[in-house]
Amino acid sequence: MSKAGRRLKPHGAFATPAIVSILSLLMGWLAPPVRAAGRAECRSVPSSVLGRKVAYCVLLPPSYDAEKTRRYPVLYFLHGLGENEQVLPNSGAWNLIQDLWDEKRIGEFLIVTPDADRSFYINSRDGRVRYEDFFTREFLPFMESRYRVRADREHRGVSGVSMGGYGSLRFGFRYPMLFGSVSAHSAALVSKLPRAELGTPGEHALSMALGGAFGTPFDRAFWDLNSPFTIVRSSPRPVGMKIYFDCGTEDEYGFNVGTQAFHDLLISRGIEHEFHLYLGGHDEAYVAQHLPASLAFHSRAFGLAEAKTKNTP
């Protein structure tokens, strides 16, 4: 028995590290690779235009902290009414964006979301909230001095959802010298406002629904002046700007009708763009389904690697 023990002892001593090595190798083959994750950074920027600090969040791509000299394109993402700067990092959108980076379906660029409250990204009718001036004169220069971004038109894009979609299309067409690409999901586009007599409950409700930015009582002339429709009609055709927008066919606010009208207007002006009406409503599920398409659109506009589908070998 002791003899057998002597034979087994060296055999066991030899086999244990070998087995461990084999198991470690197998685990290396089978275990999913550890991905280099991006990170979210939320801070605030002082504004002399607004007279207060404005919160923002920026999503930094996976290589940002490691590649200290690299500069990246930047996408400004504008939130909808009732949301804030936390709309991406505090939702499933952050995991979705991480997956897109990890799967190489989009290239690496910064995504920045400023808080805009209920401003519709314009200078308000009463002049108290000059958000447009803040965004173009203070926010863009601040972000592009604080972070390593390529601060030129070709590498600067703007996107948004609902109120933010209205803002992104408006900024894109009003400031084509600043933005080389623009996109929107379920943009708050209304080609013709419903009629209501001034001072009536309907007019007051419309003003409240639109956040008060267009006056209380609601000022239709001011709405028309700021409308993306008006800007397109009164401005030269933007040269070289890449444009994408979509909307759900069952949009509860009827923005699908306005989006279709905006598409028709761009066609009549000979402005190239990508436009889609998809089945869906005005909700997070719709945006989650189509956000990858707009991010891939901007990735291509920035000249980054072609976006890949999950089935691409």
Structural write-up:
- The protein has a single domain (39-190, 227-301), classed as Rossmann fold (3-Layer(aba) Sandwich), CATH 3.40.50.1820.
- It is globular.
- The protein has an 8-stranded mixed sheet, sandwiched between helices.
- The protein is built from 9 helices and 8 strands.
- By secondary structure, it is α/β, with parallel strands linked by helices.
- Strand 7 (242-248), helix 8 and strand 8 (274-278) form a beta-alpha-beta unit.
- Helices cover 39% and strands 16% of the residues.
- Mean pLDDT is 87; it is low at 1-33 and 307-313.
Give structural attributes.
single chain; Rossmann fold; 313 residues; 39% helix; 16% strand; alpha/beta; eight-stranded mixed β-sheet; disordered N terminus; disordered C terminus; globular
Brief sketch in words of this structure:
The protein has 313 residues and is α/β, with parallel strands linked by helices. It contains nine helices and eight strands.
Strand content: 15-25%
Number of strands: 8
Q: Give the full name of the CATH homologous superfamily.
A: Alpha/Beta hydrolase fold, catalytic domain
CATH class: Alpha Beta
Give the CATH topology: Rossmann fold
Strand numbers in spatial order across the main sheet: 1-2-4-3-5-6-7-8
Q: For the residues shown, what is the average pLDDT? A: 87
Q: How are the SSEs placed, and which strands pair?
A:
Layout lengths: L1 H29 L8 E9 L4 E9 L13 E5 L13 H11 L7 E5 L16 H16 L9 E5 L2 H12 L6 E5 L15 H9 L10 H7 L1 H7 L7 E7 L6 H14 L5 E5 L5 H18 L12
Parallel strand pairs: 3-4, 3-5, 5-6, 6-7, 7-8
Antiparallel strand pairs: 1-2, 2-4
